[in-house]
Amino acid sequence: MDGDWGRTKETLTNAFFGDNSITEMPRIFSNFANLVWLNLDSNNIEELFKDCLPPNMHTLSINNNLLKEFPQSLGGLKELTWLYMRGNDLRYLELPDFHSSNLELIDVSENSIEWMKTPNLSNHTVKVRDFNLAGNKLISLPRRMFDRLETRRIHLSSNSIRNVDKEAFRGLEDSLEYLNLENNNLPSVPSAVNQLKILSYLYLANNEIKNISSEAFQEFAEHLKALSLATNSLDAVPVVALSRYF
What we know:
Layout: H1 2-11, E1 14-16, E2 37-39, E3 59-61, E4 82-84, E5 92-94, E6 105-107, E7 115-117, E8 126-132, E9 140-141, E10 149-155, E11 163-164, E12 178-180, E13 201-203, E14 226-228
Parallel strand pairs: 1-2, 2-3, 3-4, 4-6, 5-7, 6-8, 8-10, 9-11, 10-12, 12-13, 13-14
């Protein structure tokens, strides 16, 4: 039996344990060096301990569990690429010091996040291609909210965002290409958006926008490919703001 177990640790690469009543991940998983894909969706897990994580895991799906805090233990996974944490009980988001340089996605949508904090490290930036914060309880985006974060795509739809500080996206001026702020309470296009130099996709549907300033899209006019302003309170097409595209 021990021999069979030893061979399993060397051959198992993908594991699916979704839709059970699991409360914690067994520590023996830390010995599974070849386990790179792990699905624990729809269980009752409240915490992930450092000594239970497969060391070379690149995909972890732990949607619809009972996590109340972002597991700091995930920061030590050097191969982590895809992280799914949708539908947990997170009320605040404190990202760890990720050691992985391959992060493609952090999905913390459909939680109850009211504020977030990035690592307070002087010479380190968290790099992730896709950052999904949709369906949370953010009501404002404060100054330098995404400090120490480098990302190309941010999803902020279906929150309750009304106020966006003019420096909310400071640090993302040269990296952010996609921004989704649909289904919020924005009264206007946030001035912070015009700081983004290479923004190509901007989604602002289902807000409360009435007027759009002539400078709203000026900084990224040469890059914009898609713009959605459906279901707002506009009286006319913002011709002046779009004049640089004609």
